[in-house]
Amino acid sequence: MNPGEDTSPELWSAIWELAEAWSQTPVVQQVAATLPRNRPLDERGDKAVGIPALLQHLEVHARMMMKPLMYGSRISALLEQPLIDGFGMPEVDRDMLDEWLQRAANLERAHQITLAWLRSSLAGYPLLRAPQLAPGTPLTTDEMTPRYIWFKGEFASGLHERSAPPSVPDLLGADATGASQLDQAARHMSQQLTKSQAWVDFDSALPTLDEDAKEALRAARRELKGRLSAEALDDHQPNLALPRAEFRSHTMNEVLDSLSGTARIYADAFGEVDRLLDLTMGDIFGELVLFGEPWPLPVFNVETPTPGEPIVGFETKPIGPFLATGQVVWITTEAVGDAVRIESHTMKMDQAEGIQDHFEARVLVNTREAWPAPTMNKYGSSS
């Protein structure tokens, strides 16, 4: 199943509601105010200074790791990398940066808790048998990764017994009214997630596991633990992050492919849940929380999606720093009515028309029915 197709209007509406509640909190507003995409046009690019200039610099040199809800940990780690630190790093007041990083860390922690609380409604929690949760996999690694990690400590924290994500209102600086809105929106989000096909399929897979299937899942987890140990990773590649990440992913997929029967069905169903959460409550939620409603974007040469793979291609006139991978936009074409998330960007040279920006984007199926019509003109200016 493609996670872009397992999204009901009700699920997208719940995501919008939760993002709206988060966006009203002091910590989110303070972090969002400094982000380059939210700054006035005359404070972007080479005119940016201070923290916005630093964030812009890091976006250029480490874009894959710069997800909106991971800034707290990612920026601190990236600043320790000599190549990034020494390659034209903008000057920033250290006290101001430390204060901003603390807010970003609070935001990141609030998201981790919320995501963990939503996961805790899965059947069998906290005893999840998925091999993907073995130590060292792409879902549990302690190395820097663009994935939203399943932290070991979450399973022993009693989240499945809580009526709402604990500590989130305090981390976001919400008052009593805001805290109530955050809790209510989180409960609504959980209700809609449990109705998704991915969730239903996973919950249905648990009772089909007999002792042989459970042993197969345990054996797969043991195999992954050994093959993805720190020593095994160092033997494969001691330093470079990308080959290490590719090795983790390849090894996990190889072990999952060796499963069969109900054990394979269970593991695959868990993978679908994880992909659905990464897309909706990770990437899309982060965009809505920190950047607000999607922009309308004029496009042409639209390549419509093929069945079962909701990816659309399109071109735009060169628009400089306005668009980035990961951004959510509305595209002005009758072929696609839903919002899309930009997944890749290339430049195309045409002798007749000159340079064009070419994008591929994931269609967020059913957002048209769930989200309000845009109130901005192109490139984020108010109407």
What secondary-structure arrangement, pairings included, does this model have?
Blueprint: H1 9-23, H2 26-32, H3 50-61, H4 71-78, H5 82-86, H6 94-119, H7 168-172, H8 176-193, H9 197-205, H10 211-227, H11 230-236, H12 241-257, H13 261-291, E1 295-297, E2 300-303, E3 311-316, E4 328-331, E5 340-350, E6 354-363, H14 367-370
Parallel strand pairs: 1-4
Antiparallel strand pairs: 2-3, 3-6, 4-5, 5-6
Structural account:
- This protein is α+β, with helices and mostly antiparallel strands.
- Helices cover 47% and strands 10% of the residues.
- The protein has 14 helices and six strands.
- It has helices spanning 9-23, 26-32, 50-61, 71-78, 82-86, 94-119, 168-172, 176-193, 197-205, 211-227, 230-236, 241-257, 261-291, 367-370, and strands at 295-297, 300-303, 311-316, 328-331, 340-350, 354-363.
- It has a six-stranded mixed beta sheet.
- A hairpin with an 8-residue loop joins strand 4 and strand 5.
- It is globular.
- The relative contact order is 0.14.
- The mean pLDDT is 90.
